[in-house]
UniProtKB/TrEMBL annotation:
Source taxonomy: Bacteria, Pseudomonadati, Pseudomonadota, Betaproteobacteria, Burkholderiales
UniProt keyword annotation of Iron present: no
Gene Ontology terms for molecular function: alkanesulfonate monooxygenase activity
Occurrences of domain Luciferase-like (ranges): 12-331
InterPro entries, sorted: DMSO2_SphG (IPR024014), Luciferase-like_dom (IPR011251), Luciferase-like_sf (IPR036661), SsuD_RutA_monooxygenase (IPR050172)
GO biological process, one term: alkanesulfonate catabolic process
UniProt superkingdom: Bacteria
Keywords: Flavoprotein, FMN, Monooxygenase, Oxidoreductase
Record keyword Membrane present: no
Designated name of the protein: Dimethylsulfone monooxygenase
């Protein structure tokens, strides 16, 4: 058991699986990472030994900007489960190309094979060209989330009920009984992400976990307060995961210099192409609060605004900021790194023990 393994109320850690080529920053800077299976299996073993509880795989059906090669998320997640013993792997699923009956069946089998370590991240889609290039209809922003809402309810129903019947606008089931049901009870965890009103409303009503892009503590707090208030009205409980691109170095100057280098070497055309597609998706949310709606060029160099969370500095600075995130209601930090294996190791050795120490100190303080 890793010394960094979380107690029940401890903040949890996930890392982004680099199953897509080019790393997590759209920059020509050297990134010691790789999208291959061999690299990823080693990374998964390193992460579980370092105290990471989850790994999140990504789904892309096509490139369009950088990210030229993309391994499929469910099959890749399964390979990572085979290489590990405790790590939970969250496979990204895109409603549209995937039907909930296929996902429920496939993931129930993987749950058995992995002894209860699979989870899903239902992504609602932001990349129009991806959908049109595989002949999938491209729904309006809020319609995509209405479909995801039905998708999640359908999967949960199939996983937990016999004779499941569902009459939605997107999916229909008639007395369907999945057998065997998943090992995990009540069912494998269902993550779902975004920032827009529609994404938050799904978090407040159907998902187990809400993933959001990197952001400042103030902006994250208002999102979390909004979701928790709505979830309480719905008698629903949801946990919160936040993206962060972590640059931990022995000195703050070194860490800041790495960020400057990443941005200075940004692959300008690829960032612009990604930004164009992403902003269109962000603007498409009627209230204009979607992911990337307010992202600057620098923010977009990291796919999910991970610099904004500011986990950039010394291990102590980063641990203090993580504990500050916990104080506003964050349950999990989803971390990306420049040089994955070596930085995951450093994070496990230098940052995570400090986080656990600070958590114990806070618990010891009188309420
Ligand atoms: C942590 C996280 C992981 C995501 N992973 C993927 C992914 O693998 N594939 C994908 O197409 N979209 C992914 N997304 C995109 C979201 O599902 C969603 O489509 C996007 O954030 C648009 O959000 P909006 O409604 O706030 O505009 C991810 C988003 C977040 C926050």
């Amino acid at each position: 058991m890793s010394q960094n393994a979380p107690a029940a109320d401890d903040i949890k850690f996930a890392y982004w699986v680099p199953n897509v080529s080019g790393g997590l920053v759209v920059s020509k800077i050297e990134q010691r990472t790789d999208w291959s299976l061999e690299y990823n299996q080693k990374l998964a073993r390193t992460a579980e030994a370092a105290g990471f509880e989850y790994a999140l795989s990504q789904i892309r059906f096509t490139a369009g900007y950088g990210a030229q090669y993309q391994h499929e998320s469910v099959s890749f997640s399964q390979a990572l489960l085979h290489a590990t013993e405790k790590l939970k792997v969250i496979a990204a699923i895109l409603p549209g190309p995937w039907h909930p009956a296929v996902v429920a069946k496939q993931l129930a089998t993987i749950d058995h094979i992995s002894n209860g370590r699979i989870a899903i991240n239902v992504v609602s889609g932001w990349f129009k060209d991806e959908f049109t290039s595989i002949g999938e209809p491209w729904l309006e922003h809020d319609e995509r989330y209405r479909r995801s809402n039905e998708f999640i309810r359908a999967i949960r129903g199939i996983w937990t009920e016999d004779d499941f019947t569902f009459k939605g606008d997107f999916y229909r089931f008639n007395n369907y009984t999945l057998s065997p049901k998943p090992v995990q009870k009540p069912h494998p965890e269902i993550f779902q992400g975004g920032s827009s009103r529609a994404a938050r409303d799904n978090a407040a009503s159907v998902s187990d976990w809400y993933f959001t892009n990197g952001n400042t503590v103030d902006n994250l707090k208002s999102q979390i307060d909004d979701i928790r208030a709505k979830a309480a009205q719905n008698n629903h409980s949801v946990r919160i995961g936040v993206n962060a691109f972590v640059i931990a170095r022995d000195t703050e100057e070194e860490a800041r210099a790495v960020l400057d280098d990443i941005v200075r070497h940004a692959h300008v055309e690829a960032v612009q192409a990604f930004g164009h597609a992403a902003k269109e998706a962000g603007k498409a949310s009627p209230e204009g609060e979607g992911n990337w709606a307010k992202s600057t060029f620098e923010d977009l160099v990291q796919y999910n605004d991970g610099f904004r969370t500011n986990l950039i500095g010394t291990p102590l600075q980063i641990a203090q900021r993580i504990v500050a995130l916990k104080a506003i209601g964050v349950d999990l930090v989803l971390a990306g790194f420049l040089h994955f294996i070596e930085e995951v190791e450093y994070f496990g050795k230098k940052v995570l023990p400090l986080v656990r120490e600070l958590e114990r100190e806070r618990e010891a303080q009188p309420a």
